[in-house]
């Protein structure tokens, strides 16, 4: 008996010594269900292939997994079809796999199942998007060194057990303002990588504003060549050619992220007016604007030429954009009041509908008439908004971007070197601690399409500054959007998130080492 005891103690000690560094539950955003199986850890063999169902989109996901794993492991990880040989890494498309919420954006399902035992890691999903999310989970379950860009000698262990997961809301996004300061294609692609890591599936690009116009439009070429030359503080500006924009869209699509382009109308249009004074009230070109005030500029809503401009621009942007959404802005048009404003928005909404796309607008467009399926992006700071609640009763849906929880341009603390504070300070707890289903009075969970974290860039001039404001709040907001309330808690979140600091450091991602998180 003593021998047996000693043997089992030794076995237990052996298990302890080889416990994987990551727990199955250490995933952000929190999965719907996690069942660890401690004696069932998996170690990636050097000769593993990624085996995948014979489907083009699923093969892309397998290729993506292999690309994630190759630099740090140094393993060849060829991608091969499944069947015949199952092998240690399996990505399977299956109609019976867990699906996403009933009313997903594209009718797509986003859920997945991950099974880890000593023989294999198996990801099963109804769609390639589900497989992709499963791959992001697997990435987080591997040791931190998986983030290294160069080979590391490691036991690539994955903790045993089963995760079954699906998102709470179909729309989970972030916005990047490329108008106040311009960010090139490489920076935007890196932002898309950050979204994909945390299962965010929409990138909203704020393409136009007073300080710059950032997308080439063939029928109105001076918008970019003249309107694109400025930025806040006199910076160099810049704009995307159609080819640049297509590269962003394609890069996003491979990461199951949909691009939502915004052309902000009728206000926030000084750059357009500099390029085309005929759109300005009085036909007089304003001086270029490089400050940070809002609400002074507008295209003339009483002139037919304005609607030619709107139709041409939205038509060209729609032609470059495969996703269903066109964002028409609509915020802070303080000089276009009452019926002039709602009339302008209603005509613009009809133009978008005529292009076969769904209108998204900042919640200021709420008083305009309903058009099928339109979406209001709410950025208020007080959850009582009767105008938005009334628009929801008339059929509008809502994306929640509460200024005092989701605005990534707000400072973390009084001494944060960049950012704003008009909506208050947003530490990680504040970003995390709210519920989209009950946030707005009179807006039931069924009307909430999802959550978006906007980053305005008046004070942001580099990728490192974007990352500093994103991390660690973007993962907090991703969890608000993805995870069921029953799986969420601040104490659990801060502990799960802590392990991501070393990952970001290894991946060269800048972040704010917030004192709220018990970083290792
Ligand atoms: C308000 S929020 C704006 C933006 C500014 C931002 C700064 C919204 C729809 N409009 O024009 O960049 O505040 O936080």
UniProtKB/TrEMBL annotation:
Active site: 332
EC number of this enzyme: 3.2.1.52
Highest taxon in the source lineage: Bacteria
GO CC annotations on file: membrane
CDD domains xref list: GH20_SpHex_like
Record key words, sorted: Glycosidase, Hydrolase
Molecular function terms from GO: beta-N-acetylhexosaminidase activity
Catalytic activity: Hydrolysis of terminal non-reducing N-acetyl-D-hexosamine residues in N-acetyl-beta-D-hexosaminides
Domain Beta-hexosaminidase bacterial type N-terminal: residue ranges: 27-165
Pfam families, alphabetized: Glyco_hydro_20 (PF00728), Glyco_hydro_20b (PF02838)
Segments forming domain Glycoside hydrolase family 20 catalytic: 169-484
A biological process from GO: glycosaminoglycan metabolic process
Family (UniProt): Belongs to the glycosyl hydrolase 20 family.
Protein name according to UniProt: beta-N-acetylhexosaminidase
């Amino acid at each position: 008996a003593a021998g047996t005891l000693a043997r089992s103690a030794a076995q237990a000690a052996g298990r302890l010594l080889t416990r994987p560094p990551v727990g199955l539950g250490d995933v952000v955003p929190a999965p719907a269900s996690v069942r660890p199986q401690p004696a069932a850890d998996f170690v990636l063999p050097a000769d593993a292939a990624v085996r995948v169902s014979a489907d083009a989109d699923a093969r892309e996901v397998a290729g993506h997994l292999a690309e994630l794993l190759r630099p740090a492991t140094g393993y060849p990880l060829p991608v091969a079809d499944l069947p015949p040989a199952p092998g240690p890494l399996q990505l399977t498309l299956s109609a019976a796999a867990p699906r996403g919420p009933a009313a997903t954006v594209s009718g797509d399902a986003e859920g997945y199942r991950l099974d880890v035992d000593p023989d294999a890691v198996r990801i099963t999903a109804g769609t390639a998007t589900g497989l992709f999310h499963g791959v992001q989970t697997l990435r987080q379950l591997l040791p931190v060194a998986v983030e290294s860009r160069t080979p590391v000698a490691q036991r690539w262990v994955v903790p045993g057990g089963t995760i079954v997961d699906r998102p709470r809301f179909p729309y989970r996004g972030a916005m990047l303002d490329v108008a106040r300061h311009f960010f090139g294609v490489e920076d935007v692609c890196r932002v898309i990588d950050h979204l994909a890591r945390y299962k965010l599936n929409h990138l909203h690009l704020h393409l136009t504003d007073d300080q710059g116009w950032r997308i080439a439009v063939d029928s109105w070429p001076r918008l970019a060549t003249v309107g694109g030359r400025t930025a806040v503080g006199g910076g160099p500006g810049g704009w995307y050619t159609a080819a640049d924009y297509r590269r962003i869209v394609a890069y996003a699509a491979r990461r199951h992220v949909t691009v939502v382009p915004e052309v902000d109308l009728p206000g926030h249009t000084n750059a357009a007016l500099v390029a085309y004074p005929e759109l300005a009230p009085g036909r007089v070109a304003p001086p270029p604007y490089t400050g940070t005030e809002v609400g002074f500029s507008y295209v003339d809503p009483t002139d037919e030429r304005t609607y030619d401009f709107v139709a041409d621009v939205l038509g060209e942007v729609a032609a470059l954009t495969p996703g269903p959404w066109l964002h028409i802005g609509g915020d802070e048009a303080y000089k276009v009041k009452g019926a002039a404003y709602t009339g302008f928005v209603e005509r613009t909404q009809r133009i978008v509908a005529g292009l076969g796309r769904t209108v998204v607008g900042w919640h200021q467009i709420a008083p305009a008439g309903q058009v099928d399926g339109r979406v209001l992006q709410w950025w208020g700071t007080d959850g009582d908004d009767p105008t938005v609640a009334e628009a929801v009763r008339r059929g509008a849906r809502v994306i929640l971007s509460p200024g005092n929880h989701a605005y990534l341009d707000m400072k973390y603390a009084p001494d944060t070197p960049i950012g704003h504070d008009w909506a208050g300070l947003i530490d990680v707890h504040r970003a995390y601690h709210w519920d989209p289903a009950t946030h707005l009075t009179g807006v039931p969970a069924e009307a909430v399409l999802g959550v978006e974290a906007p980053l305005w860039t008046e004070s942001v001039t580099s990728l490192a500054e974007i990352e500093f404001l994103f991390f660690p709040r973007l993962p907090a907001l991703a969890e608000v959007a993805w995870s069921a309330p029953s799986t969420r808690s601040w104490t659990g979140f801060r502990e799960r998130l802590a392990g991501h600091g070393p990952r970001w450091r290894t991946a060269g991602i800048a972040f704010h080492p917030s004192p709220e998180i018990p970083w290792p």
